[in-house]
Known about the structure:
Helix content is 77%, strand content 0%.
Amino acid sequence: MSFFTEPLAFEFFRRALLAATLVGGLTGLVGVFVVLRRMSYIGHGMSHAVFGGAVVGYVAGVNFYVAAGIWGFISALLINQTTRRQQIAADAAIGIVTTASFAVGVAIISRARSITQNFDAALFGNLLAVTETDLLVIAGVFTFAIIVVFFSYKQLLFLTFDPDVAPVYGVRAGWLDSLFALVLAATIIASIRIMGVTLIAASLVIPPVVARLVTDRFAYMLVVSTGLGALLGFFGLFMSYEFDIASGASIVLLSAAAFATVLAVVLIREWARTGRLSIGNRGIGSAEREAMLD
């Protein structure tokens, strides 16, 4: 029991634990759309883009959240607009926009090496860096994401699974893509102090992938991924304290272990049922198809 009770005696840990749990739930929720739209690389890229904005904001004396937020949102919009051109693949657009943004940050740091230490938490995650302001930002972004998903559920569902046909049924694809870009950018920014730039992508991808392994119902996948992300953030932070490693790394390692376990169980069950080690390609559930066309 000391594994749980000892770190809870510290106020900084209680604050960080709440932040990690909220971040896990937030990335689990938003990550479902990222994974199903086959844009898993965007989490990695957007975190790098946000880092560039954070460095520019620091040098210009602008608040971290304001600078990173504006920069991240503009980067997401550029990616969306670029991928609308059929000649350019999504991964190429993400690579161009985000690496250019990251390069801006690296260039500035290389010119003023004394500021490098100010971005250690942003790069690797640091539970000691979590403040009450960070908690309010994370809670606000989580609430915003839930509201967007709740009120745009059918439209997001349609756009995720059939983006070419969605506009025919009245879905405002351009406006919805912009709204999702805003949610994604806000998620990256809110998560950066816990996960770090280098590991945010994993927290966006692993919980949805695990949820996809256990259900083919979109609504259930949202719930499972959000809940799993929150649990991984919660227990991952205890691991961070116990083994004295970066919070982002501990959460991702625990997530990877959860993925490996679930995948093994699914493969074994499939082998027992069919005699083959294959999880197959499950399509969208019939309930989701009806909701899309309702």
